[in-house]
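Per reviewer request, we include the raw input and output of the structure prediction for the construct analysed in the revised manuscript.
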Amino acid sequence: MLESVPNRPRVLMTAVLVVTLALALVAVRRGRSVAAELASARNLRSSQYVGSQQCKRCHAGHYASWQRTFHRTMTQEAGTRSVLGKFDGSTLDYMGVRARMHRGPLGEFLIDWSAGGAQRWQAQVVRTVGSHRYQQYLGKSADRYFRLPIAWDVEQRRFIHMNGAFLTPDPVLPAAGSSVERADYDRHVTRWNDNCVFCHNVHPNPGWDERRGQFTTQVAELGIACEACHGPGSQHVARNADPWRRYALHLTHVPDTSIRNPARLGARRSAEVCGRCHGQRISADIARVHRDGDPFIPGEELSAYSRPLAVDTTQNGVTGLFAPRFWRDGTARLTAYEYQGYLQSACRRSASFSCETCHAMHAGDPRAQLRPQREGDAACVACHSQFASTSARAAHSHHRADGPGGSCIACHMPSVVYGLVSVHLSHRIERPDPAQQARQGRPDACTLCHVDASRPWASSALAWWSRGANAGDSANTTASTPAVTEALLGGDPIERAVAAHALGQASAHFAPDYLGHVLGLLLDTLETDNYPAVRAIALRSLRAMLRRAHSPALHAVDCYEPTALPEARSSCLSQLRRVLGASAVVSADVDLRAALRARADTTAIEIGE
């Protein structure tokens, strides 16, 4: 008798059904488990830092866009790909000292300093800081890194002395035949371990041991890398090794609690991530920070660990220490205080307004990292849509919409911030008010554009908008003197820098017969101002003006070096004046100029920012 043959298709179908049901059950259970895990808050303090190479494995596109930024190259080990300066025997003479930048027998980057023909000291460059405008160099002695007094000017492709890179006056020159004072030459030699380390690296810890008097400085990664903004990534890496979790994240778009995405933190917390470095801060327990490092992790409340510096911040019971870094109304006048400007801006009242409203860390030109759709006035009209049309902006500004007077940025974020031998936009978004700003002793947007105009003129011209009636009650204002002239000749160093910058801008507006006065002001600054950084800004403005005018005198400026000795500067300027002829004549009253200069001499500032 023949045995019955099983129905194989039916058996196979049953097996497939069982397996499918089993997989579905597993998927449901795993889905519930993943959903529960994603719904639970994660404390990143139990995470470890893993480095940007781990991020690259899954986020190749974001890694590539970060690679193009100046954040990545903020701090690097010295090497042929990181060192931008020409260490080929180049020399820099300053204060009677010759610095020679060259390579050692093993390819190391060396700087020798000599005076009177004899070598005095030598340092090896072991790390670099910066790559955008200037590149600074670090040497090392025992457990300490030091910023060396020589830097590389990226734009000009030349070495400069750090005394000319920061806002400090000319040093005391050695008498003929005497040796240079190291204190003056090394004025900006700064210890890196408990200074620069905080904002230029990931998870900085100076590791200061007060008992032993030693540093054991550590960073999770040199430069500003992924985890500086996203927090430590070990939990994120471990948990996303689970494919179920990855699929759940892609399909549901729920936030990943194992990492921090500034775009999903909300405006306030997102801005705090940037404010950690772009807003100079002070901790209530500085000794603890020097010992254990900065405890802040993205997503936490920044104010739990530190507070932004302000014009009235005290330290150890002393007031006024930080006042020179701000205009009297509290507006920051140095870079690295952008967060303070954000906090003071009326736009912050919007629940969605943050740094990322205008900036993107993975898009746009690396020089400003503006969102491509937020460049220029697009950043403003994206929220203030009532001014999207050119006619609406012209009616609002009382200027041509396509001219500098119709620029939202120029009027509401004027260039009143000094940093890195340049002047930058303020991040305090505000309405222009020449009268009020004159009373606060700070520049106003109107006279920074109308450089031949006085404060009272600006206040009167803006009467249709300004709440101030007259700017004449400012102690530093005369009735008819242009505000920029007053600032350039009689202001403190930051006021003079801002004024020198304004004169060279393409947006600077003045009558044709005022050109000689402007040129004369800049030449006067190049000859008499005692701050090399102010002279450097004036030189840049002079070159810009001569270039726009296609002046044959442009080549005559090449001999001028802002940090050169006074005799060399005067000789160069004599040549330049001969080429310019009668076109550069300062028409300001001689007595007024003398009085303004005398006032400027009493307003010294030394800021290593």
